[in-house]
């Protein structure tokens, strides 16, 4: 099968849905100051609009995965897209802070349904030799989507945040329509599994490999968000301007997307996904620690870009491993939910810890990244065995 085969149309549709879903995260920083001023939230209150997404996934990732296994991945995918689009419209029209926060919670639920359902559908849509490439493409949804959301900033400035958010909401609705037309009903079995939830949880724990993949992914995210959240502040502390620091962070995000694509191509050429997990974790740990140890801003940028690029090998490899890490296809969605939940727990807990250490000394901020890299490497080695 070539990359232009008709089987890739559903993959492209789901990737577009994932990117536009993640854009609903990136749209908030682009409008945070404006929204904070309009509703009297202040910067901290407006930042809650971002963290609600992570909080939803940290609390309910596994539960959403079990729900997806019950209702079927295609239904869950479409439900997530439609719910996300409707909630995004509601957020753009929200007249008060409580309604805006409620709409963001609904957006987070829709996004969770989407990202838990999509990997299994994508894996089932392509030939076995193309699954690594497909998972590499899917792994770009988060950095590409956040970048797209950030690019709404000029529209916010020209037309206001409500107009910009409505444009992104309608784009997500269009992606839902395209997925409804292109994602086939027969990609995977749609019948709910016969096993009760408790039995599914026991089977998931007994399989062990999903837990190891979740561990690798969570510790990878400690490193990734340790760079993404603090790189601008690190560069500004070294004398860089705000604009240059922001551009460097965007470049690191693009490098991460490139790493995902590189992993997909390497897996398509026969490189084992387990080896990519180890290489990505080890390389990222060394480079990420250097971001907070090297005192020259130019070197910091190079190290951050390399860390995010090399680390990008890991998420694509993890997504590729999941479908064959479970004994029953019905467990794919719960396994993805488990990975998403671990990812967002790391996203919630790691930045405050790293920030507290950085306040004492930037060199101390390298310690959690080194420990996370070691744990991710060990998880990758256990997958190889």
Overview of this protein structure:
The protein is mainly α and 385 residues long. It is built from 17 helices and no strands. Helix 1 packs antiparallel against helix 4, helix 12 (242-268) runs parallel beside helix 14 and helix 13 (273-291) runs antiparallel to helix 15 (313-321). The radius of gyration is 20 Å and the shape is globular. Residues 1-6 and 188-194 have low confidence and may be disordered.
Give a brief rundown of this model.
This protein is mainly α.
Protein traits:
385 residues, mainly alpha, Growth Hormone, Chain: A, 2 domains, globular, disordered N terminus, membrane, transmembrane helix, transmembrane, MFS_Efflux_Transporters
């Amino acid at each position: 099968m070539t990359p232009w085969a008709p089987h890739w149309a559903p993959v492209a549709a789901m990737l577009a849905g994932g990117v536009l879903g993640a854009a609903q995260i990136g749209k908030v920083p682009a409008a945070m100051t404006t929204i904070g001023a309009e509703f009297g939230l202040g910067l901290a209150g407006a930042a809650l609009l971002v963290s609600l997404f992570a909080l939803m996934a940290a609390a309910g990732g596994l539960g959403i995965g079990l729900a997806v296994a019950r209702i079927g991945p295609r239904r869950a995918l479409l439900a997530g897209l439609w719910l996300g689009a409707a909630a995004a419209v509601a957020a753009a029209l929200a007249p008060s802070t409580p309604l805006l926060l409620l709409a963001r919670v609904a957006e987070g639920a829709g996004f969770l349904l989407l990202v838990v359902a999509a990997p299994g559908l994508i894996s089932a849509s392509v030939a076995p030799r193309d699954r690594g490439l497909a998972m590499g493409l899917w792994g770009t949804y988060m950095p590409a989507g956040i970048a797209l959301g950030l690019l709404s900033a000029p529209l916010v400035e020209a037309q206001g945040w409500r107009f910009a958010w409505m444009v992104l909401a309608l784009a997500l609705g269009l992606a839902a329509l395209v997925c409804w037309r292109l994602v086939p009903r027969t990609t995977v079995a749609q019948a709910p599994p016969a096993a009760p939830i408790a039995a599914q949880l026991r089977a998931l724990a007994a399989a062990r490999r999903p837990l190891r993949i979740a561990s690798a992914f969570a510790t990878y995210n400690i490193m990734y968000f340790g760079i993404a959240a603090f790189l601008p502040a690190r560069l500004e502390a070294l004398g860089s301007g705000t604009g240059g620091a922001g551009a460097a962070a965007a470049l690191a995000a693009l490098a991460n997307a490139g790493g995902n694509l590189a992993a997909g191509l390497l897996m398509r050429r026969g490189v084992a996904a387990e080896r990519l997990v180890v290489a990505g974790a080890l390389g990222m740990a060394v480079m990420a620690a250097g971001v907070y140890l090297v005192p020259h801003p130019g070197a910091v940028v190079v190290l951050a870009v390399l860390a995010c690029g090399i680390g990008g090998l890991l998420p694509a490899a993890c997504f590729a491993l999941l479908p064959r890490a479970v004994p029953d296809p019905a467990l794919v969605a719960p396994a993805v939910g488990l990975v998403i939940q671990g990812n967002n727990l790391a996203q919630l807990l790691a930045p405050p810890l790293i920030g507290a250490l950085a306040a004492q000394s930037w060199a101390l901020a390298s310690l959690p990244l080194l420990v996370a890299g070691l744990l991710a490497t060990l998880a990758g080695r256990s997958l190889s065995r």
